Amino acid sequence: MKPVAIFRHARSEGPGYFATFLDENNIPWRLLAIDEGEAVPQDAHAFSGLVFMGGPMSVNDDLPWISPVLALIRQAVAAGIPVLGHCLGGQLIAKALGGTVGSNPIKEIGWGEVVVAENNEARAWFGETRVFTAFHWHGETFSLPSGATTILSSAHCQNQAFVMGRHLAMQCHVEMTEEMVKDWCAIGAEEIAASATSPGVQAVGVIQQDMPTRLSGLNQVAGKLYRHWIEGLVP
After folding, report:
1. Which domains does the chain show, CATH number per domain?
2. Pairing between strand 29-33 and 83-86?
3. Alpha helices in 46-196 (DSSP H)
């Protein structure tokens, strides 16, 4: 089987639980370290699926790798190769397919409830799950490309996830591990302090409370989403 390509845009924002899931299901994967200058592949057909992780940059920034990534996403979707995006990755998918990315009315940092939409597409991905607590770290959000369906929303962000067939773009993070949460809190301590009055931003101490329980629940939801996604992988 061809590997799943995982695009990393920042060292601290690796595949996390997604890599664990692939390993547990004996699915080969290859990390593409865009943050270290690795070139964006030109042929999506070399992979069974494409996965895009998060990052502190904006998809609207003038960075040399963004245009090639957008082109690769469009190529993959046209070829029926599934794409999956986490936060920045979801924004990349949205922009590649005709959506726009701009400021969210409220910055979200920390744990927050998300609600699964009442539609057939959402049920296909989430099963009986109707609400869960996701991890958030974003100041921007995406609009829906033509033909996309919202499957997840929150009080502070209307479009938390959308699907187009076998393709899934998420604004929230479901890939988190305890190490990642701690690293992000350390790296982003100043950002958290500067946004302390935002109703969508939690203090570091609150974010790091009861992490084993929170992450266990998140892993269960992520596993459900990832399992549905890998059903579309191209051999």
Report:
1. 4-230 (3.40.50.880)
2. unpaired
3. 66-79, 88-96, 120-126, 178-187, 189-194
Q: Helices (DSSP H) in 54-177: which residue ranges?
A: 66-79, 88-96, 120-126
Per-residue pLDDT of the chain (235 residues; tens, 9 = 90+): 999 999 999 999 999 999 999 999 999 999 999 999 999 999 999 999 999 999 999 999 999 999 999 999 999 999 999 999 999 999 999 999 999 999 999 999 999 999 999 999 999 999 999 999 999 999 999 999 999 999 999 999 999 999 999 999 999 999 999 999 999 999 999 999 999 899 999 999 999 999 999 999 999 999 999 999 999 999 9
For 95, the token pair is 């922009």
> For 16-97, where are the alpha helices, taking DSSP H only?
17-24, 66-79, 88-96
